[in-house]
Amino acid sequence: MPEDNAPLIRTDIPHSARIWNYWMGGKDYYEIDRIAGDAGIEVDPDITTMAVQSRQFLIRAVTYLAGEVGIRQFLDIGTGLPTMQNTHQVAQSVAPESKVVYVDNDPLVLTHARALLTSTTPEGVTTYVDSDYHFPEQIIADARNVLNFNQPIAVMFMGVLGHAKSYDDLLRIVNTVLEAVPAGSYLVMWDGSDDSPAYVTLCENYTGTGGTPYVPRPQAQIRAVFDGLELVEPGFTSITQWRAADTEVGEIRPISAYGAVARKV
């Protein structure tokens, strides 16, 4: 019998984190998610490319921040289901003392988190906060138990802000977190845009299944999230093009997913 306080994991409604895991080639999804995922691929065949390339962007961004910049604290908000080369694994492979706080409120993500925590380095810290990013003040309060908010922190929103209730709410969420971190901190963010009709249709169809709506936004609105910050070269661009290796640039075309890494000054 399940415990009375066990989290409720719905297997009759597709869930974006599980579908994304399916698109990335993971194993943590249910049949309803596979069905929804396959339907999404039929509408937008590029979605699997977006899923895989989003992880490559994360790897390059975290490697840059932990390596070239020397960031040792990461706040990954809306982390989703763990697959391979997660934020703490990338950061701690470069700097074993790195501290990583993941934030999510999905019961399945939190269940998997318990097992994932065992892979942290002896010198570092990896932990999860059970919170909805619509309540950034709570996230900050919980993260302070692990992270030093007097030292630079890399704040990450990786393909999750389409779940914000409105664009104004999106900006409120990001700005609230950024206001709490000191100068020298970084924002890493990407999202899918509405310049792909197929992606827009995919998101509309997903909403029709009963899943939490995901709203693609114009490039200009995604770019505006970085206003007031100092963009790291090459600036705001398709995630496939952000510091990709020379051998990759000619092979991987731009997709309708844009992001950047930017420094708080």
Automatic annotation (TrEMBL):
Molecular function via GO: methyltransferase activity
E.C. code: 2.1.1.-
Pfam families assigned: Methyltransf_19
Source domain of life: Bacteria
Record keywords: Methyltransferase, Transferase
GO biological-process terms attached to the record: methylation
Name listed for the protein in its UniProt record: SAM-dependent methyltransferase
Organism in which the protein naturally occurs: Nocardia aurea
